[in-house]
Amino acid sequence: MSSAFQLVLAVSSAAVVSLGCAAALALHPGPVLTRRLIGFGAGALVAAAAVDLAPDALRGGLAPGALVAAMLAGVAGFALLERTVLRGHSHADAGHGSGFRRAAPLVLLADAMHNVADGVVVAAAFLHSPATGWATAFAIAAHEIPHEAGAFALLRAAGWTVRATVLWNVVSALAALAAATLAYRYLATVSRWLPALLGVVAGSFVYVAWVSIRPLLDRQSGAPRVAFSWAAIGAFAVAGLTVLLR
């Protein structure tokens, strides 16, 4: 079995594991659990940015100043996207979950960018050896589960159907496969940009986390306290798994 075929198989298998576990955790929450998972998802995004993506960018050779610039570029880019392309979806709209509708496309886009970075990392591991590639693919899948569960919850809170949530997350996961395939062939060129890409994705995660949790801060009945409590749980879960799996 060729290394290229094993790469495709590993990335596909890891995506199935990650998305399947995330779906089992988050696809059928009630209203209370939905609110908690929104907080969990926001915390998971921030932890992924702070404990996983930013340190990886630094280890890849990106200078601290360049990392800050890349993260600010991610924040600014997603803020611009929200205020232009997505401006027609108001946070003030009435209806269940409407406060999260503008965040939903941002969640998917940030996740797709993260998947691109993961695909490049897996391709680099396969160029070292197939065994390293398989181990890397499933390590990434394992620590992606809490983040993916949070992303699923955010999309469901935005009013997306189960079918649409699964379908678009599969489409987002295909970004990892496409990136891995291209990076395997053109790694010398692609790898130069990977640290900067990780920084941009980290910034986008921070912004998407804020946009996701912001509607809860305007509510009563202790919603802000619940949101921040579950954001802390999500952050500790992702940070803990990231440390354990390194």
Précis, in short:
The chain has 8 helices and no strands. The chain has one domain.
Descriptive terms for the model:
single chain, 246 residues, mainly alpha, 8 helices, globular
Q: Which bin fits the share of residues in helices?
A: over 70%
How large a portion of the residues is in β-strands, by DSSP E? under 5%
**Uncertain segments:** 88-98
Structural category: mainly alpha
Mean pLDDT: 78
Biggest sheet, open or closed, and with what strands and sense? none
Q: Would you count the extended β strands for me? A: 0
Number of helices: 8
Q: What count of domains describes the coordinates?
A: 1
- Terminus-to-terminus distance: 28 Å
Rg result: 17 Å
The gross shape turns out to be globular
Query: Element order, helices and strands?
Result: HHHHHHHH
Can you give a write-up of this model?
The chain has helices at 3-26, 31-59, 64-84, 103-128, 130-157, 162-190, 194-213, 223-245. The relative contact order is 0.24. It is 81% helix and 0% strand. It is globular, with a radius of gyration of 17 Å. It has 246 residues and is mainly α.
